Amino acid sequence: MRKPFIAGNWKMNKTAVEAADLASKLKESVGDFKDADILICPPYTSLAAAQEAIKDSVIDLGAQNMHWEGQGAFTGEISSVMLKDVGAKFVIIGHSERRKYFSETNEKVNKKIKAAISAGLLPIVCIGETLEQREKGQEKEVIENQLKEGFDSLSEEDLEKITVAYEPVWAIGTGKTATGQQAEQMHSFIRNWVRENFSDQTAEKIRLLYGGSVKPVNIKELISNENIDGALVGGASLKVQNFTEIIKNSV
Ligand code: PEP
Q1: Nearest to 26 by CA among 238, 250, 249
Q2: Is 249 part of a structural domain of the chain?
Q3: DSSP of 3-44
Q4: Pick from 32, 60, 170, 208: most CB atoms within 10 A?
Q5: Is residue 247 in some structural domain?
Q6: Residues 5 and 163: beta-carbon distance below 8 Å
Q7: Dihedrals phi, psi of 4, to nearest 5 degrees
Q8: Ligand 1 atom nearest to 237, measured from its CA
Q9: Would 251 be classed as within a structural domain?
Q10: Ligand 1 atom with the shortest distance to the CA of 171
């Protein structure tokens, strides 16, 4: 049985003071709820403040991106080592906004996954097709390629540290959610890919999150599907009440 996992991607929102306020309100709101794993991913500059605010709570901290090198002449970048140092446990890798606006390729995703794991971070790897690709019936081909190249030369042991977030690009921030059936079809495809390329055991263990306009009203239908183990939540994770309801409706 896989434990539900609800992760909030705050994107480029909240100053440090605002992040501390949101995180401490969330801490109060979820109390000691342990039936789902709960994660918040504030922007880099708010990680320390958020970490302080969620201390001694059931909420974990994650970052939204990282560079694959540990240190050096990479102006403007942040490394896995720095994220560990600030208290992050997870890191989102390959979000579609990074792929679209910052030229994140499957090859870079692969390097980042490897660097994250070797620094002791747990990657949440985002994959998903665009509307155009879905309309051409290419969604499975796109996902397969993202998995094949993104997970290139990873071991079984590496896979155990990874969570996959299936996020159809056409459903992110648009208010359009994939139906439970559409999402389940893709999740089952992803789990089977893991089964074929790694093992039964890894396929059964790996958590697959759905992302794309998840709200308190649609989480129940989504998570009632066999292969949907949780959600990566953008917009709704910025509202304490909505995010708390998503968490509580996920079990
Ligand atoms: C996301 O940022 O990963 C996301 C799914 O956003 P939203 O929930 O706002 O669609």
Answers
A1: 238
A2: no
A3: PPEEEEE--S---HHHHHHHHHHHHHHHTT--SSEEEEE--G
A4: 208
A5: no
A6: yes
A7: -60, 145
A8: 8
A9: no
A10: 10
Residues 92-147: tens digit of each pLDDT:
999 999 999 999 999 999 999 999 999 999 999 999 999 999 999 999 999 999 99
Quick check: 173 pLDDT over 90? no
Provide the mean pLDDT of the chain: 97
User: Worst-scoring range by mean pLDDT, 152-161, 177-186, 229-238?
Assistant: 177-186
Q: Is the CB of 209 under 6 A from ligand 1?
A: no
Nearest-CA residue for ligand 1 atom 7 is: 234
What domain count does the chain have?
1
Q: Which amino acid is at 129?
A: E
Q: Whose CA is nearest to atom 1 of ligand 1?
A: 234
For residue 122, tell me if it sits in a domain: yes
Residue 178, pLDDT score: 87
Q: What is the pTM of this model?
A: 0.97
Res 43: pLDDT: 98
| Ligand 1 contacts CB of residue 94 (under 6 A) | no
Q: For residues 232 and 187, what is the distance between their CA atoms, to the nearest angstrom? A: 14
Residue 206: CATH number of its domain: 3.20.20.70
Alpha-carbon distance 62 to 10, whole Å?
10
Q: Which of 209, 235, 242 is nearest to 223 (CA)?
A: 209
Residue 65 is part of which domain span? 5-236
Residue 35 has a pLDDT of 97
